Amino acid sequence: IEDPPGFAERVEYLLKDWITIFHTPSNSKDMIKAFGGFVNKMNVYGILKGDEPLTRFFRHATQCCIDLTYRNMNDPSWKTKIFQWIDAYVRLIALLVKHSGEGGSTSTKLNLLNKVLGIVVGILMHDQEVHGTAFQQMGYHRIFIMLFLELSAHDPVLENISLSVITAFCHTYHILRPSLAPGFCYSWLELISHRVFIGRILASIPQQKGWSMYSQLLIHLFKYLAPFLRNAELAKPVQHLYKGTLRVLLVLLHDFPEFLCDYHFGFCDVIPPNCIQMRNLILSAYPRNMRLPDPFTPNLKVDMLTDIGGSPRIFTNYAAAITPSSFKKDLDSYLKARSPVTFLSELRSNLQISNEPGSRYNIPLMNALVLYVGTQAIAHIRSKNLGPTMATIVHSAHMDIFQNLAVDLDNEGRYLFLNAIANQLRYPNSHTHYFSCAILYLFVEANSEAIQEQITRVLLERLIVNRPHPWGLLITFIELIKNPAYKFWDHDFVHCAPEIEKLFESVANSCM
Amino acid sequence: MVNNQFGMVGLLTFIRAAESDPNLVTLAMGQDLTALGLNLTSIENLYPSFGGPFADSPARPQDIDYNVPPEYLINVSIREKLSKVTLQKYKDDLLFYLFYTNVGDLMQIAAAAELHSRDWRYHTEEKVWITRVPGMTPYEKNGTTERGTYYYFDAQNWRRVPKEFQVDTVKFDKCPNPSAYVAAMSGQS
Amino acid sequence: PLQKEHQIQFQMMEAAYYHLPTPSDSERLKSYLQRQPVQTPPHYPQQ
């Protein structure tokens, strides 16, 4: 429905009037009084008469800010002017949100906030369609970050709605995820990794209620990057976003390692297998209250470590990822009674989704299957009051499945299967322990050298990248090259090239 | 051996390619994550001063909005009642701070006057404060030119640095008179 | 090879790469209010 005649002009007049008020020094001391006067004026102009005029007001006011940005984009000195304009508009929104509705009632405030965020998102998405590669992110970036900072100020009214404010912004950034707003992707990463946003969502919100939302935003980022990271050579724009992602992950690794520990599984599901360092970074996280023994300690008794029996928290419902349900039913039945025997021979067909080389397999299903079978195995071993060792993990339905996968899959499938196991080699916990034993058992029991070669490949490629390296990976590899039972050095693939041999020797020397 | 990209040869091919084409390094060998501008050995959390995913260094103190206790904020109703600032009590460091941060304000003039009274001299061309090093050997004089070792105040690194100078004392700023500026401003207004 | 959808995303990302946000885009403007504004000598720091 068209605006009433003259509505847009009235909005522009009011917006300019507010911006003048906002930037008048004498008002800066007592903005609330100035705001009260302006609200009366909005009322006189019919803006507050109901939901519709208010929606129209925000749409036109936002559009004014964006149009101003496009008109003056190329003049750097104009950036300050544009920001002065937008910051004033954002302050108005924040004051309206904060003072709307009765003091205690929060729903009016949040409805208004979500309305405004929705309007800005709508204009951004439309603008991206209209402008295409000429789309400019700056105005939207400024609106979102300044509105978030305004609503994150230390204020009793705002503290009371802080979780809802964070949820509103997470919802907004979810809608604006890079795969839907690629022209906004750099600003998007700036916004979700802004120090105040990280502080609020990961530190201030009680009981880690923001962690799950934040993990979803990071998964959106990894999913967006994945197709561009599959190629070895990164284009500059991709490299820039990738490097920015590494910085954010480093801050999380340093400040919130438990967050990376809890959500590692969901992240590794979407990070491409060749993105080794980024995956290592996530898998290297360990709880801050834990002390990791030096992996190179001679005769390190892993099963004697106090933390090795702990069950790591995994906040991804990986069991639900095992589909279809008939497959899950057969899996559970096999784990329970090792029947139907046909289950093993059908495993590969359940995991294969195409014949296209390089994307033959359902990686999330592979990852979920491996973790599910492993956790079932640990529970089974525990039920006998034992812990995972080379002796307790064998001769079981669980190991049948792993050995079948090792033997029956082709090179690509086996590489992905072994990656799924290696993704569990993290800090001292029962999963690390079990999967370390499992991969070493698969090595020693392998009926072909190709299996041993691929186990070595999966471990080595994770070790030759720059740090950090997960603790579980190091202790597994050290055991493999040190323990004569594996006859590691006898294999041709160990000596297939001077660089490879040198790499093994350098790791071996570090161990000695 | 496995003859595709999923075995050791596949990895070796990648390693060799990465040696010849640095562009391949990003993913194959990873990068030195300590060189991304983050102090990974910091005891403190990094996020409060995180400059952002595309910044090569942490946010500087002046970039960050610290929540200042309300009693630090001067309310308009009491600002005239505050006791006068006595610059004589303050160390040079604070005087320099007041000089460099109160641009266009009487405070900048007053800080300059106090520094001048402590034998600091503001060089009007170099735009830097310098002072003689106490007890230093006599300075070679030649008319209005002097040569010798002086201290200058390095506002970038915020410290006093000794340095050999040859200065034309004509270019030193005269001692500013704050009250003259107030009179000039009130005359204008 | 990139799928069609990813090629379009790449074009948008590449265009955005040429006008990246700067860290200051996420910082408040520092409005500085003089307490006693005076015309200071031009050779003093003015900002």
From TrEMBL, chain C:
The chain holds residues 748 to 794 of 895 of the full protein. It is found in: Cytoplasm, P-body; Nucleus. Component of the CCR4-NOT complex; distinct complexes seem to exist that differ in the participation of probably mutually exclusive catalytic subunits. In the complex interacts directly with CNOT2. Interacts with TIP120B and NANOS2. Interacts with EBF1. Interacts in an RNA-independent manner with BICC1 (via KH domains). This is CCR4-NOT transcription complex subunit 3. It comes from the Eukaryota. Belongs to the CNOT2/3/5 family. It comes from Aedes aegypti (Yellowfever mosquito). The lineage of its organism: Eukaryota, Metazoa, Ecdysozoa, Arthropoda, Hexapoda.
